[in-house]
Amino acid sequence: MNTLGIYIHVPFCGRKCDYCDFYSVNWSSSAAVDYTAAVLRNIRHYSDTARTVDTVYFGGGTPSLLTAEQTGSIISEIRSCFDLDSNAEITLEANPCTLNAVKLKELRSIGVNRLSIGVQSMIDEELKMLGRLHTARRAEQAVLEAAEAGFENISCDLMIALPDQKTESMRYSAEKLAALPIQHISAYILNTENGTPFDCAEIRDRLPDEDDTAELYLGMVELLEKRGFMQYEVSNFAKKGFESRHNCRYWKCMDYLGIGPAAHSCYEGKRFAVERDIAAFIADDVQQVTVTDEAPCGFEEFSMLRLRLKEGLLLDDVEEHKADILRKLPPLINDGYAETDGERIWLTPKGFLMSNSVIEYLVF
Questions:
Q1: Cα–Cα distance, 206 to 259 (Å, whole number)
Q2: d(CA 264, CA 213)
């Protein structure tokens, strides 16, 4: 297929969350203007009207800090330089504090048709502990305003296994989100990333242990599926037909082009990454990239990514390794980590919880 996804990394934040290690800098209006101009230059550099773009994803950072006009200019440039599918999924990540009824209507008018709202929790004490700027009430209002503005594809982020978190608080947040007019939930287990404020003994000592984390995760999967949000990937749940088309590109080794500081690409047979430096990105005529893989999507990577999906790995796609995988499979099935119908293998929620170890055992 000649389709392409485009990822735009918007590296601005109002304030960096204490757990986050994604590349971001403080927002300023002048930096946003210069950044947008650099994005437009790079879109023109990669211009290829023979490629049909069927997903566009504004990630960050906080992409909703850009004005609707700036976001719209980027979408318009993609439309001019590529064959932008009329049914393309165009996603914008947003912080609840940056959304209001007027801006949401503007975003709809420029072509954004999917929102990914960073809620994380519906409990104010947890939000404060995470360093989030919004309250649970503001998060709920943002979702309701988005639905009122005409958004019919809304995703919310949920974070679990927080310091001191118990099952009751996880269930409360999950239930509150599931009751909102949304179609997708991305649910992540909190990790303490190196170099972040959460990378300290005070936080690590308060995190749920392995057994409690498993109870939280498996309980969340069960709750969300009862509410109609079916698990289709390790950390992603959707109502039928609302799986993230852009993120599925990553897990299916399909082409995507990343633009912006810290953006990654799998494009025209190579993986490459842009330097984590907004000043360099703005100064350079074309973003400078480092090739990270000259031949991506070999057996190991292809299998690893496919096994992150609930649909799993089709054994005929890895014919040369089929016998070895089948030989390793029985103990995983016996222990409840994997299942098979003879043609495909997939991980159970219990297997997803241990996905790194299970996939390493099967594939490497």
A1: 38
A2: 30
Neighbours of 302 (CB within 10 A): 18
Q: What confidence tens digit (pLDDT) does each residue in 80-89 have?
A: 999 999 999 9
CB atoms within 10 A of CB 318: 17
CA distance 5 to 233: 19
Residues 6+ apart with CB under 8 A from 6: 43, 53, 55, 56, 57, 78, 82, 256, 257, 258, 259
Is the domain spanning 307-363 CATH 3.40.50.280? The answer is no
- The DSSP string of 105-138 is HHHHHHT--EEEEEEE-S-HHHHHHHT-SS-HHH
Whether the CA torsion 242, 247, 251, 255 is positive or negative: it is positive
| Cβ–Cβ under 8 Å, residues 350 and 222 | no
Which amino acid, one-letter code, is at 168? E
Q: What is 3-250's CATH superfamily?
A: Aldolase class I (3.20.20.70)
Whether 3-250 shares its CATH topology with 307-363 is answered: no
Query: Residue 236 corresponds to which tokens in the numbers above?
Result: 């992603």
pLDDT tens-digit series, residues 201-227: 999 999 999 999 999 999 999 999 999
Give kind and range of the element (H or E) at residue 141: helix 136-148
Domain range annotation of the chain = 3-250, 307-363
Residues 232, 238, 244, 245: what is their CA dihedral angle, to the nearest 10 degrees? 70
Residue 185 and residue 170 in contact, taking contact as beta carbons nearer than 8 Å? no
Q: Within a 10 A sphere around the Cβ of 336, how many other Cβ atoms?
A: 11
**pTM here?**
0.96
